[in-house]
Amino acid sequence: MIRRKKKINLVKDFLEKGRSVSIKDREEALNYLVAFIAMIRPNLPELEKANKKFAEAIRFMHQHPSVLNNLRVAIMAQLINSNLVPMLTESGITVSRGAGRELYARLKHKFLPAAQDPNDFLYLLNRIFFKHNDYEWVEQIGRGKWVHFFEQIGLSFSGNEPAIIKQSVLSLQILSARVTHLGWENEISQHIPQQWQPPNYPFAVQQHLVYQIKEMVLRHNKHPEAVRELVKELMAVLEQCAGLVQQIRNETADKGTSLSQTFILFQIEQKLNRMYLLLDIADADEKINLSRFANLFITVVRNENRKNSIREFLSQTTNYLAYQIAEHKGKKGNKYITASPFEYFQMIWSAMWGGLIVCFVAVFKNLLTLLHLAPFWSGFVYSVNYSLGFVAIEETKSTLATKQPAFTASAVASSLDARKSDEPPNLYNLAVTVSKVSRSQIASFIGNLIIVFPGTWLLAWLYDWVFGHSLVQGEEAVQLLQDQHPWQSLSLLYACNTGFFLFLSGIIAGYVQNKINYGRIGKRLTEHPILRLSLSQNRLQRISDYVNRNGGSLAGNISLGFFLGFAGIAGKIFGIPFDIRHITISAANISLGAYGVGWDHINYRYLANVFMGVLGIGFLNFLVSFSLAFFVAVRSRGIRLKDYPGFVRILWKYFYKYPLDFVRPRNRLKRTEL
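That's the Recombinase sequence above. Prediction below.
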């Protein structure tokens, strides 16, 4: 029987033998660091133990000063004898000219990783943090504890390490040139206020200052005080650059944004953050912002573990574009949240008008089935019918219950957005907001349904009175009832499909509105050479204003109409169980089916089950649409729900104390503390 040789930990081996790490032996120093990290690294199922193992390693360091000294020497051996420029200028920073090229590069390197130079510091880092999930426990330990760790080691960069200073200055120069280049892109320079135009353009001024620092440090070896004064001046200019980036982002709420602009701003922000750290090193004052250094360390470890992750890249670069889409939806969502009894009954009244329009949509849809068109054209005319109905609801300012969740979810997520306030979100007020959303949704359902059931019945009776026969009758009428049954059909599954389409149409509405704002479509319409000749200035201005206000809503309503119109046709074409169930349309179909069957032939228990199926359809329409929209809104804002573990408890206590607040408003809402 072959016995495995017990693996020796190099840290403990050096301690037992009284050996010291040599700063000239980089390989030995690297092995020492690998062994030390192995003492901290938790097993895959035990990531929560990372903090415990890290604390044990810190205590071990303090108990044995020689370990602390060896660790300091091992780290400096890697920094002094390695090429730091790729890490400082590329790791954790997007360097491709476009999102497409970066995506292609990551996809290519997933199959065949890029070759690395052994002298590159990133090569050494990959040797130390070689497991694909190392970034998880590194992040779990947290920045504060890593700062304390680097403080204990005594990490500093003074003039005694000229190699590090020179590489930092070179990296600073590279990043500065890239920031300037990005700053001159049209998507950025066209949005800069007049006071920052050349020669005061901060993105250009910072490059000139970096060049002066490079000349002082690398060529003239000027006194550190002169360098530090220049560094302070450069810091102020970089703050101006960061301020301009934020200003452009703030304006996108009204002006919109594009994926290209988002990508460029994202790159500039990354490079500016790295330049702050490099300036800390370049001034050689033996003081370094360890908080920034810890951020760099955590970022680089994550990037090296996830450098070929397509999901990571898409998440980083598209979140802000998604944020703008969610913001447009969030603003509209506020009109769907009622606070007072007056607003509550106003919502019911608005939903009643929406229900009336749905009655006609449902009747016309069933009339269109009599045309017996080819599948594509059937789907097309159904889609146009739905689209016209949804547009009519929008134009008359009435309400369709299922359109609310995609917008109210963004409004709820907005109240958790820490970027909008320096104060942490008030979770009690958030619970109140959730109760308002709940009762507003119930009000719109009530308004829709109390009109749809009798209204569609009345239209069916009028059709019978005029033409002498029911619109649907016999097996067709029975099938309309059967299609809404909760367990004798796939209605609840199809309701989830509808929820997804409601969410997707909301995304389309936000995206189109964002493009209209960013592309200044309204202004371009008023300046269109042909339209200016064929239309009066007042009419053209009204068209422009209408497009600016309602372009996104039109796109969302039309897309939803086509999603719903073609869903059933797609299921038939591909021979799969795929269709939609929409609460108000299903309610209208129940009225048509019940009228066609006749009250004398209806099993009332069966009808009650079908009615319960409609309520289930409405619940799933809401749940799926709201959940997806809320997930996107939360992710796009960088909100982590696990940071608010107490919210569910607060929400439950509020519900337990004021359950009726989730159904209807009180005349006087007393917000007592829970």
